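Suppose a colleague, Dr. K., hands you the sequence of a protein chain of 47 amino acids and asks what its three-dimensional shape might be. Before reaching for any lab equipment, you can write down a predicted structure in token form. Begin with the sequence itself:
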Amino acid sequence: MFASLTQPKGVTMESDVAQAIWRAATEESDPLHYPAGAHAVVLALMN
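The predicted structure, expressed as tokens, is then:
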């Protein structure tokens, strides 16, 4: 069980963060949160 925690499947890469920052700076819409990375997008869709 704990072994799976040491090898996460979804991690946020620097490029994910850069893309989220770019969207925040250039999009016309004004969302409160900009998910960065595949796992963050999934969590954002759950809310």
